[in-house]
Write a structure and sequence with these properties.
The structure holds two protein chains of two kinds.
Chain A: H1 2-28, H2 33-38, H3 44-54, H4 60-72, H5 86-121, H6 126-140, H7 143-157, H8 173-199, H9 202-209, H10 214-242, H11 246-251, H12 257-266, H13 270-298
Chain B: H1 6-23, H2 25-28, H3 66-102, H4 104-119, H5 122-133, H6 137-147, H7 150-164, H8 167-174, H9 179-215, H10 227-234, H11 243-270
Classes of the chains: A mainly alpha, B mainly alpha.
């Protein structure tokens, strides 16, 4: 287990490093940073002053090292526009995005996994057909469109749920459903496939032969094996959800990290964009590591 | 030949229809998709109370015919979808085969590149690049290709490594064939079906992402009849005229559904081992 851990950790660190280079490059490919701050009307002298002030006149490696050093210390820089600390800005908005990500993933798991199990228990029967139908449909509908349709039905026609803002938990219902509707199919399909494979295995036949009750076989024996890929994918999906349900946050005017990223991109506020990219990447690395560890704990064969 | 499954047949029919519509857009579309008119703004579809068959699906906020815009929009969606997926395929297949064939240090480096791509939030990166580079059909395709090659690379890397230990590859090596010959003649034909399967799913994915980029205003630019853009423009009339959003979204969902169904069918036919 120790070797497995150090190898995964080493890889994770390297990927963090390469991802940080991309995040840094993203804001420096344009070479228009000083214009972004000074505006189009800025004189050459003003631009030169801005360059010196922000250190854009240094070589790129020097700028990168300076930035990376600060990032490691938890300082993501300051916004070009509000001059707030980027770390502060992200932390302020993280709870909204986190709540949205967790609630939609929970919703997707609570619907997708049982649907997948029901489909696999009797392949070809109506739960299986329903599962495939919902999965195919869900994967074809972009979440912002689902969101807009939900707004139309529940916000405009029925007027039973709030369609924007973050005043109460009710505001999270529609965006969570919109996101879960897109995530659920993946989880349902994976659960179904994993369960089908597990239910056909020899140890299930043994368990049946022993006369174990059916629910016990399904939950304790088959699901434990079938859930492995679901765990990995659920972690990846959580990463996607946290990294910006940019579109859904903008549709429902939820003031989370996604909306922050979107506003920053529109205003060319590169320190914010760069900060969010690197934080999301680091989060992803962490989640992948967690998935590996959970899977390693569930299945010792994976610890090679 | 095996009988087509009903889902595969439906997918093929829908996709074929969309291709025909896109190809013959100028013949089928009842109106010019760009002509604006203040006199006929926000007409509802023909089946609604004030609708007329002059504008079967109504008009948008600028008085442009919705049906014609949807028809021309199919061209854009198909171009970004297949263009993006093809470019991603070139990058991903090259990386995957190189990693699987070379192994060792090259493989380790490519694995890091793949992992880096996977941890970066692709929509965010795509938006940031488009903001700097400007928008347009070609740039959108380029950005889609650069951000969605990962699945090709992951799958082909494993598949190539498996093919490399087969007798015919070893035989080619022993005979002194060049690396290029082995990769193009022995390995690629054996992993191409996997790439073809991924291509269909990625095309659907690219269409969804491109629509999201347009929806956010950084993809295809107005006045082009992109479906994502139509939804963005329709948001202003969400409470009074929901048709724009409903119809453009439905067109998008139908196309993506069709491609996914075809993808499922192609997968079951070419690479049943990839079934999830």
């Amino acid at each position: 287990m120790a070797g497995f851990l150090t190898r995964r950790l080493g890889e994770a660190l390297i990927v963090c490093f390469t991802a940080s280079i991309v995040a840094f490059a993203l804001s420096h490919i344009g070479d228009n940073l000083s214009t972004a701050i000074g505006g189009m009307e800025a004189t050459p002298q003003e631009l030169a002053r801005i360059r010196a002030y922000y250190g854009f006149d240094r070589s790129l490696p020097a700028q990168y090292l300076g930035w990376a050093g600060h990032v490691l210390g938890g300082d993501l820089g300051t916004s070009f526009f509000s001059h707030e600390s980027v770390t502060r800005m992200i932390l302020d908005r993280a709870p909204v995005t986190l709540a949205l990500a967790l609630s939609s993933l929970t919703l997707a798991l609570l619907t997708g996994v049982p649907l997948g199990i029901a489909a696999a228990v009797r392949p070809g029967d109506w739960p299986d057909r329903l599962c495939l139908f919902l999965a195919t449909l869900g994967q074809a509908m972009p979440s912002y469109w689902t969101g807009l349709l939900l707004i139309l039905v529940f916000g405009v026609e029925l007027q039973v749920l709030p369609i924007s803002g973050t005043e109460s938990w009710l505001s999270f219902v529609l965006p969570s459903v919109a996101l879960a509707w897109f995530v659920m199919p993946v989880l349902a399909r994976l659960t179904r496939a994993g369960m089908l494979e597990a239910l056909g295995a020899d140890y299930i036949r043994t368990a049946r032969a022993k006369g174990l009750p059916r629910h016990m076989i399904i939950v304790k024996h088959a699901l434990r094996n079938a859930i492995l890929p679901v765990v990995s994918v659920a972690m990846v999906q959580l990463g996607y959800l946290m990294g910006g349900s940019i579109v859904v946050e903008s549709v429902f005017a939820l003031n989370g990290v996604g909306l922050l990223a979107w506003n920053a991109i529109q205003r060319s506020d590169y320190p914010v964009v760069q900060g969010i990219v690197i934080i999301v990447a680091a989060l992803f690395v962490l989640l992948n590591l967690c998935a590996d560890l959970i899977n390693g704990a569930l299945d010792p064969r994976l610890r090679r | 030949m095996r009988r087509l499954s009903p889902a595969f047949a439906l997918g093929l029919a829908l996709l074929g229809l969309m291709l025909l519509v896109a190809l013959f857009a100028d013949v089928i579309a009842p109106h010019d998709p760009y002509t604006q008119s203040l006199l006929r703004r926000l007409r509802p579809p023909a089946w609604a109370a004030r609708g007329s068959f002059d504008y079967p699906l109504g008009t948008d906020g600028f008085g442009r015919d919705t049906l014609s815009r949807l028809i021309y929009g199919a061209r854009i969606s198909l171009a970004v979808g297949f263009g993006g997926a093809a470019l991603a395929g070139v990058i991903g297949v090259a990386l995957g085969i190189t990693a699987g064939y070379a192994g060792g240090r090259v493989d380790r480096v490519i694995r890091i590149i793949i992992a880096t791509r996977l941890v970066l939030p692709s929509l965010l990166v795509a938006l940031a690049v488009l903001q700097i580079a400007g928008s347009g059909l070609l740039i959108v395709i380029l950005v889609l290709g650069l951000t969605s090659w990962d699945r090709y690379a992951v799958v082909l890397r494993t598949a190539t490594a498996q093919v490399c230990v087969q007798g015919y590859v070893l035989r080619a090596r022993v005979l002194g064939c060049s690396h290029l010959h082995i990769v193009t003649r022995e390995i690629f034909p054996n992993v191409a079906s996997l790439a073809a399967v991924i291509f269909t799913f990625e095309a659907a994915q690219c269409i969804l992402v491109a629509a999201a980029l347009s929806f956010l205003g950084l993809g295809i630019q107005a006045p082009e009849p992109s479906w994502g853009l139509m939804m963005a423009e329709g948001r202003r009339y969400l409470t009074t005229d929901p048709w724009q959003i409903t119809l453009a979204g439905a067109a998008l969902a139908t196309l993506v559904l069709a491609i996914n169904l075809v993808g499922d069918g192609v997968r079951d036919w070419l690479a049943p081992e990839m079934r999830p």
